[in-house]
Amino acid sequence: MRLAIASGKGGTGKTLLAVNLAWSAPRPVDLLDCDVEEPNCHLFFKGQVVRREPVTKPVPTLVPGRCTACGLCARICQFKAVAFFGKEPLLFADLCHGCGGCSWVCPVNALMERGEEIGEVEVREAPRQRLIQGRLRVGQAQSPPLIRAVKRRADPDRLAVVDGPPGADCSLGAAIADCDLVLLVAEPTNFGMYDLELALSTVHRLGVPCAVIVNRAGRGRLDVRAACARHGVEVLAEIPESEEIARAVARGRIALESVPSLQPIFAKIWSDVLSRTRDGRSERRVLHHADV
Amino acid sequence: MKVLLSTTGRELDSPLDPRFGRAELFAVVETESRRFEIVENAAARAALQGAGIQAAELAARLGVAAVITGHCGPKAFAALQAAGIQVVVGARGTVAQALEDFLAGRLRPATGADVQGHWA
Ligand code: SF4
Ligand code: SF4
């Protein structure tokens, strides 16, 4: 069973929810930090690094002396990663999606693929938990290939909690694509609702079942339950606005350890989550997703 | 000589657009006669990424010898250079003023990008 935590923007308490759900999981769990631009689950994870591996994506490179300046490679590239001005093509690796089109179309095999390092995956182990974290290299613009690399390393037979990227773009898609349920974290403010709506539209488009967790409940006056009902999505739990929680987070502590009143809330979230997803009862649609 | 200036309007006294890749319009001016035409930079503006590269491709198709603009990012610079087009940054004011500044030698060709991507 894979559970994803997401939110329309950063700073809503997504990581708080993810690390505390992993900590309170009923079975051993893989925590997958897919917020690869700014991974931070490790700050709350007491475990040793056991593995670290680079992740690459295939990008074209020019073999010297072969190009006949036909321009086909630039015409086939859908991502403007190849520019052609009558001489050898100009390659922009950071725009490349690794589709292989340019080397395939080149009539003289002037383009070869090489692996460009886009980031790394780090694995940490603790007694009942494993943290698998992706970290994008500075200057790299595409997180989906790295997010998929993180998810490939998870044990398919274990529970998994995915800490998704903030925002509602293709990285969110990559993080939640094969999940059984997405919990969207929202704050009860107008801005919070706006971000939630953006994330909801991406989640709906991918056909992944979802529910909402309200964080810092009591902070704004907005009626999140009514707003969610209008969107046809249920609010599973509310985490209250609390100084104790904020203090625990600031110290890199697991909030559940320092604030016992949170324990029933998390127990309810887990039981709701498991009852919705057990035995594959969730209607997960099969997604056809280009794996690049 | 034909030069291209990034612009916000359809006249020579329209304010220059300081961005190259994401500029709305390009003024293509024949420097001897001052005759000009306005070209829309639509494809590049619609692009999520790589706007500078597409704008550079358009500049190459228009056959200009120089691009005069406010700022130029690294991808656009590399592409313009590969196309053999001179890049002149630091222009300001109206299109006409920037053109005079360039012709009077007050603007120097850039030797590299002067801003990071997304700006240009
Ligand atoms: S591999 Fe695909 S995306 Fe990358 S440069 Fe070639 S055609 Fe473009
Ligand atoms: S397709 Fe091959 S030969 Fe043609 S321009 Fe590209 S690299 Fe050169």
Protein model, in words:
The complex is a heterodimer of chains A (292) and B (120). Chain A has 292 residues and is of the alpha/beta class. Chain A folds into two domains: 2-47 and 126-291, Rossmann fold (3-Layer(aba) Sandwich), CATH 3.40.50.300; 58-117, Alpha-Beta Plaits. Chain A has helices at 14-23, 72-76, 101-105, 144-152, 170-176, 190-206, 224-230, 243-250, 255-258, 263-277; strands at 2-7, 29-33, 48-62, 82-83, 90-91, 111-126, 129-136, 159-166, 181-186, 210-217, 235-240. In chain A, the strands form two sheets. Chain A has a nine-stranded mixed sheet, with helices on both faces. In chain A, helix 4 (144-152) packs parallel to helix 5 (170-176). The longest helix of chain A is centred in the C-terminal third of the chain and has 17 residues, at 190-206. Chain A starts with a strand and ends in a 15-residue tail after the last helix. Chain B has 120 residues and is an alpha/beta fold. Chain B has one domain (2-103): Nucleotidyltransferase, domain 5, CATH 3.30.420. Chain B has four helices and five strands. Chain B has a five-stranded mixed sheet with strand order 3-2-1-4-5, with helices on both faces. In chain B, 46% of the residues are buried. The mean pLDDT of chain B is 91. The interface between A and B is medium-sized, with 11 and 14 residues. The structure holds iron/sulfur cluster (2 copies). One iron/sulfur cluster (SF4) is lined by residues 67-73, 89, 105-106, 108, 110-111 of chain A. One iron/sulfur cluster binds next to helix 3 of chain A.
Overall pLDDT of chain B, averaged? 91
Number of domains of chain A: 2
Which protein chains are joined by the largest interface, and how many residues does each one contribute? A-B, 11 and 14 residues
Order of helices and strands of chain A: EHEEHEEHEEHEHEHEHEHHH
Q: What's the number of helices of chain B? A: 4
Helix content of chain A: 25-40%
Rg of chain B, Å, rounded: 12 Å
Query: In percent, how much strand structure appears in the residues of chain B?
Result: 15-25%
| General form of chain A | elongated
Average pLDDT of chain A: 89
CATH superfamily (homologous) name of the largest domain in chain A:
P-loop containing nucleotide triphosphate hydrolases
